[in-house]
Amino acid sequence: MRKTRSGNRRWKAAQHSGAGCKGDFRGGYMTVYLALVTGILLSLILTVVEGARRSTIRMHIECCADMALDSALAEYHREMLKQYELFFIDTSYGTGDPSFHRTEDHIRDYMEKNLRPREEFSIPLAKDITGLYTDEVRLLQAGLATDEDGEVLKYHVVQYMKDQSGLSLAEAILDRGGQAENWQGQDMEGEWDAAEEAMKEEIRYKKRLQDEDWDGEIPETPSDAVRATRGEGILGAAARGMQVSSAVIGNESRPSVRRLNQGTGLSEAKEPADGLLENGLLYAYILEKCGFFGAEKENSALSYEVEYILQQQTSDRENLKRTAQELLLIREAANVAFLFGSSLRNEAKAAAAAIALLLAVPDAAESIETVILFAWAYAESVKDIHILLCGDKVPILKTQETWNTPFSRLLTYRMHLDSYHAPASGWDYQDYLGALLFLHGADRAVMGLMDVMESDIQRTPGNSGFRMDGLIDGMEAEIYVTSSYGGTYNIKRTYEYE
Known about the structure:
This protein has helices spanning 2-17, 19-73, 78-84, 100-115, 147-163, 167-181, 188-210, 222-227, 234-238, 276-289, 305-311, 316-340, 345-358, 365-389, 429-440, 442-457, and strands at residues 89-90, 132-141, 471-472, 474-483, 488-496. By secondary structure, it is mainly alpha-helical.
């Protein structure tokens, strides 16, 4: 019994003194718990870190893509902006060999500089948790300035003119074009020739009735003297004493005649600028940015650029001659219409009666009067073109006060071209050019404009190989990026000039 009690006491003592053993047991229990929880916590922490890294990668790629494409747009062609105030990227980058691959390489270089700044800048103790590098850049869409027969270029021209509030000028050009349209297509010289032949046949017929032995010769009339000057050509008469440019450009190298590179055209976000007002804005832009006779542009390939856009011949002289001939036909139609309804007609009628009496064929007086009126209108029209080339104004519809060729000077009208009174109102040469642009149409105008732009920019330093079909107005790019930690990413971005 004693032993038993003693043993119990020892056990109790041991129990009381075993607090330390119990504490050790509890510490071991916590270590196992933490070991189990730590694995879960580490998994959670690593998952969060990996998620943060992936989110960082995505954001980093988005930011770098935006910066890369912004940087690509910042490489706009400086001379295009300087001369024509339009933003385009030259995909040749001064090499003369335009290619979308060059733009892709530029975007890729910008991506690399932004993805791995440590290679550009020395940053002590910097760590890269993304490990990104650019695999590939692809341009999915890129509209060239020449696409769709210049529709891309025209879109940006129209947007520029709208921003510059060129609406009033465009409306004025459309109004002048509508008025000139009334006189277009009338072959007054052909009608004149036909009327003169009919007059001579009438005189011959009546003279033979009077005298079977008549030799058939008809004395010269004022119409004959004026018609003889037509062989000289309008430019020789109207521009007499003026210096005319002899500049020429190459033929086969022009965008309007060569085979062009192709892009993807206007993006879906852009509406084609094909309305009447938009065409007027295009004509207004041409008159604002291009030179013409009397207002030549400095350092241009051709002096008469608007005339080139109208005629698209390779020499200044030929373009000016053809433009003057077109204006002559418009002026002839308007002047003939005025003369036939004017009291000035009485002078021609009196002269015709005298000639008919001299020929002893009084019944032919009316036909003689007709051809004299055509000749008189032609002489006045030549003077009109001379007035325009001198920088003065000519109204589309004449009055007796604005008529400049007296009947008494009809036979010697070329000696008196400088004798005229210029009205305060009317159209000047630029106004008539605007009307001709309207009559020729926007499709022809935009193709001629591309020729002018290319030839002018090629004359500037470092741009001898410049091509209009190497210009893009924006792009949709797809960029592929890989992380050295694993994973491939791609992103699409569309950036373009508005």
